[in-house]
Write a structure and sequence with these properties.
The protein is α/β, with parallel strands linked by helices and 358 residues long. The chain is 40% helix and 13% strand. It has 13 helices and eleven strands.
Amino acid sequence: MITSTQPLRIGPIELDFPVVQAALSGYSDTAMRLVSRRLGASYTLCEVMLDKFVLQVRDRRKNHHFLHVADDEHPVGGQLMGADPAQFGPAAQRLVQRGFDVIDINFGCPVKKVLGRCRGGFHLGQPKVALEIVARVREAVSAHIPVTLKMRRGLDDSQQSLDRFFEIFDGAYQLGVAAVTVHGRTVKQRYNGPSCWDFLRKLKQHAGGRTVLGSGDLFDAQACLDMLHFTGVDGVTVARGAIGNPWVFQQARALAAGLPMPDPPSLFQQRDVIAEHYSLAEEFYGAERCVPTMRKFGIKYSRLHPKCEEVRDDFCQVNAPGAWRQVLEKWYSKDGPGVYPLVEEPNPVSIGSHLTSG
């Protein structure tokens, strides 16, 4: 399926392509964001940060990577999460001071310990507090800085949850948010079961000219275009589908231009990007401190190798600075065709039986 795409506008910021990288806790640091941008992402979001942390973290070398924004990654968004509305405004101001172009507020995280501390998706159950947070952030930063939201379609499938969702959704736009990203699962679902794209389609019809981005079950380039076409949302945010596969943005651009789906990146192309990613991580974290972070990235990158299980096992064994180079020498020294990563969660358009109202 080929569908025309339009530029995506987030407040005064116009992006040339409506497929962007989502905020990914533990992943979307400067290194990942730069790699994604260089492979076609028009916009990226930093991994979510607690408002308390943003206010308390000191400008030390070991903390450098948390609030770092590279010169060539603009525009980039900083995502905030917390419980106390009073801390969101000052935290947003600090993110702007550090160079973030957009402030995104997380009302969608479904992780149990986050909900237990009254953060993330917990706010979908208390519209007054949620809207107070939005108001405080909007008032704290300059008018030219867009404020956006990340939501799920409710805490659960009850009517009360749906009513609260729309109270927050509509109220946020009235308070001046530039865009809202909505994940097609409920908080209760976490990451289980399909994302309800039909809900996103009806939501965009409700929103009219207001900017809405969709999220959920975007594991390959075709799914990104399918969501745009099926739901009519203005843009889509790729989350787990971008980890270890930053080529998804390049591939989505090709499909949107009416070109055939590009071949999977060759082993040499994979080697070069993995090496670039590791080098960036070493620059920002140091050779030793980047090892745990990059080990998990290596495991994800291995999915594109024809001998993925063996490559994954070798990346799992990387526990010393620079040891990743030995994996590249062993498995990527000769060029050859790569493979598309296995998509374990099917595209909702291809299994349309579940597309019922949320």
